[in-house]
């Protein structure tokens, strides 16, 4: 289903962009052949693969359950929620989408766009490379990097240390920023489904990812990570107009939002008791916007670790159609995330006043993006339990956790492992500290796969390379 989505979406884009039949024939015949796919078509494929397969499906669905945005109430998410099915199969599709899909196509695009002098394609590809690779290492820890994507030259790549990968990610982003500043023979336009070829916004997104990755190292180097994050934020988003949000889902079955497909086809997720009670306790006006009622007009939240099977949706509330629908936007990076990072980094450095200011801006930007009326935002921020005189890490990460609902649970899961916020309530046991390595790697590259359990933290979590 995922592969069909990507290539049918690509074909639809090609048609609406008035591409020639010759180009379409080449794509249909051999979509992964670097001699057959021009830069513009490859970029569209990479973006749709990144958004759909990497940011929008299995990794997000299980992260959502682990961090208690949702509760698994059917199938594998239910097993994961009850800690009975966190095994090597849960990440198979996403690992393949990363290594055999997005990252492979990205390397092709980097190579051919560099050779052709299409520097803007090269820069965008490197940002997408850093983004996809960061998801892989954040969720699995040590992953193939330096020997990966070599095809038949090396089918059993070594697993690089996460610390080394994090150093490489910053270098990749520096290269991307330099590429975007160059003259490009051909420039992206409509094939860039995120920014339409706007290199200024792509450059800001590179800095936004740098800030996110620097801040991730809060347990490794509290002060240094904060200083680096703040420096990066200074070059990132100026306002919500810079947000990196995918808005090209369609109502066609192959083009629908992946969370909408999950809701219709599987209905594995209900609103978590942790999330629902959090918003209730904060008198949060987003509750009625985000969460549907069940029969009788009540909102009922599913307890993590002990919920009944409820694929029918009769027992527990689901996300509202205002949130989950066929064409709902999917956020990758936002201005409000940058303000939350700014608040946290300033707090670590002892800059309380700056932390307070950034926090207020973060919550305001989040709620504005989510469609909350200005008057309701003002009332919400007037509450002492939302805006104390001096904001703490708990308020910052709690509000950031709410801002990531429903489509950025990977980031919420990363933050939880860094900070321990929010307090999770799963009665079946603690959340895993990482994803299990997939069956394909255990079968075909066993000698290199780290011997580690899901209860061991990744390097930026516990400072060890397992």
TrEMBL record:
Which Pfam family would be a valid example here? SusD-like_2
Instruction: Reply yes or no: does the keyword Signal apply.
Output: yes
- According to the UniProt entry, the coiled-coil residues are none
Q: Which UniProt keywords apply?
A: Lipoprotein, Signal
Keyword Protein biosynthesis appears in the UniProt entry: no
Give the top-rank taxon of the lineage listed in the UniProt record for this protein: Bacteria
Signal peptide residues are 1-20
Q: What is the name of this protein?
A: Lipoprotein, putative
Organism this protein belongs to: Microscilla marina ATCC 23134
The major lineage groups are:
Bacteria, Pseudomonadati, Bacteroidota, Cytophagia, Cytophagales
